[in-house]
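Lab notebook, bench 4. The sequencing result for the construct came back, and we need a structural model before the next group meeting so we can plan mutations. Quick request posted to the team channel:

Model the 3D structure of this chain.
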Amino acid sequence: MFGKRIAAVGVAALTAVALGACGSGSGGGGGGSSEPYKVGFNSDLSGKYSLNGVGQRDGFKAYFDYVNSQGGINGHQVEVSYLDDASDVTRGTTNTTQLMTAKQVSAVGGYLLSNVCGAAAVLANTHKVPINCSALSDDLLNPVQPYVYTARMVQSEEALPMLTLADQLIESAKPRVAIIIYASAASVKLQSSLEALVKEKGWELVASEQVPLSATDVSAQAAKVVASKPDVVVGSLYDPLAVSFMRTTKAANLDVPFIDYDGATYEGGLLALKDPNFYIFSTFTVDGEGEGPGLDLYNNALKAANVSPTKPFVSSGYAQALSIGEGLKACGFPCSGQQLQAALDKQNVDTGGFASGPLQYSPKSHMGMNFASFYVWDPATSNAKLALENTPAGSGNS
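Done. Here's the predicted structure in C-alpha cell form:
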C-alpha cells in the first residue's frame, strides 16, 4: 500500500543486501571467509507481551535467514543469537550483557518494551555496541545517545499524525478529545505530546487516562472516557487492551473513532474487532500489500520463513534487521560495534514500498522513520484499507 508513493532510487542497495551482497564488495568484505558476522536479538518471547515479541523475532529472523540463503553479507553469513527477556528489566540487562560480552555481537535488535531498552542503553554505551529498540523513551534520543537507535517512529512523534487524522474524521471546529495510554515510559511521553497538541489546537481535552503496565482490564479507565463524552479517542493500547476498550465503550453506547498507536496490529486489532471506528498507526506495511522492490523482498523473505505478513510486529523486527544488515554491508568485515555505529550514522535506505519513507539516521537523529500511515477495517472488502497515508512525525513538546 505504500509502494506507489515511494521512489525506486536507492533500492539497488537494499536489493544487494537481500540478494546476498556476496564477494568482497565495496564495503570491504572478506571475500568468502568462513567467519560470520555476529548479531544479537533480545525481546519478550514468553512473557505478557510475547505475542508481539515472537512476531518481532520472526521478522528479524526471516530477514537474516533469507540473506544467509542468498550468500550472506559481503560474502559472510550472519550468526544471530536470540534471547528472551520476558519484558523483565533485570533479565533484559543480563541478556544484553551476555550478547555484548560472551557473544561479541556487533549489534542487538528487539527490545519490545521501552523500560527494557532504557536499561540496556547504559550497556550499549558502555560496551560501544549499537542497540535497535522497538520502543524507547524520548530521553534516549534527545540528546542523541550514540549507540541507541530505533527503526520506528518514537511514540511522542506519533501525536501529530494522530491528531491530523482526527481533524479529518471530526467535523467539529473544537472537538472533544479523550486520551488513553498504557503507562510505559514511551507511552507516557505520547500522552504528554497529545495533551500539548490538543491545547495548541484549541480543542477540548475531556479525559486523559493511564492504564498500569500490570493491568489486564481497562474497564475503570474506559468508564471515565465514556463519561467524558468525547468526539474522538487517541492513545496507545496494545491489542488485547484495545479490543477490550472498544468493546466496553461500544457496550456503553460510545461509538466514536479510536486512533491507536503503532503497537496495535492487523491480526490482533483490526481483524479481531472488524470495527470501522478503530484506526491503527504504522510506519510499515501491516499486511504485505502494495508495490515496490523492497516490499517484494519483504514478502519473499517471509514466504521463505513461512511467516504471515499480518502477524503482529513481524514488520517491526524485519525493519530492525534490515537496518543492521545494511549497516554491516556498509561497514565491511570484520565490523565492530564502533565501526557499525559509524556506518549507521550515515544510513539512508530506500525501503521500496515496505514503509512510509526511507529508513535513515544521522549523528543528530537516531529515529529511523519520519512518516507513517493509518489503517482501518473496511467492511466492504473485509480487509484493511489506508485511512491516511504518509503523514509526517511531530509532537507538542518541541
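The chain has two domains: 3-154+286-370, 156-283+373-392.
Will bring this to the meeting.
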